[in-house]
Amino acid sequence: MNKLLEERLALLGWHYTASRIDDIVENASNNNVSYFDFLDTVVLREWENREAGLLAKRIQRSKLPYTKTIHDFDFSFQPSVSEQRVKETLTCRFISNGENRILLGPPCVGKTHLAISFALEALTQGFKTLFLTAEEMVAECRKAESKGTLTRLINRWSRPDLIILDEVGYFPFDELTANVFFQVVSKRYEHGAMILTSNKSFIEWGKVFGDDVLATAILDRLLHHSVTFNIKGDSYRMKEKKKAGIFPAAPLN
Ligand code: ADP
Ligand code: MG
Fold it and tell me: Of 30, 77, 159, 162, whose CB count within 10 A is highest?
């Protein structure tokens, strides 16, 4: 086929079309496609391919540990999770409004799964998103302190449209991380959205941050514009194991 056309398309950045030009033209002529439909399809496919590439890049940069969507979430297993609140969160209006979503509950009730579903929707809608666990936060704070780059780190965590902090409370924060956390929450207050997951109730956050006054100041800001999902239910993994016969089901009384 026309090498020159392929090269010009590539120069224009139309790489998807350039790499498939033979098939596209052959398909259009076999199907008697109108000029308008031909052009429309070519532009649309190029555009869709670019969007998919950008989304893949955003997902990679967001450091999501894995991808799970809300379609994989079984609401009937976890009735304490309000489907309506989940749907409202998935509109991502809370991100534009700089609000927060907090997911509380025991292990394996779907906190991380929901947080990742929200993050994926945000990424799909074009929001810059960053996922990190509390453990990674501690490690990054220590590294930045030793390198003298704490201010840069705080700015990096203050910038994304949405930041997800997973597993707050699985172990206490050291003083440095607790202070950095406070600064990030303060900087993001009312303009940068956050999603937090925790296995600890708010009353216990004093212990998590090693300081009741600091925990109160953090909670004041976090909870001002927020929705909390209080998940009370059984572990999903236990259910799967019971189903597989690894654990006997509880005896019926
Ligand atoms: P948590 O963060 O609360 O400890 P996770 O979100 O990591 O729990 O859930 C543990 C595992 O169980 C994950 O693989 C998750 O996808 C799955 N899971 C949890 N709850 C549900 C649910 N209601 N429907 C489908 N999968 C679930
Ligand atoms: Mg989790």
Answer: 162
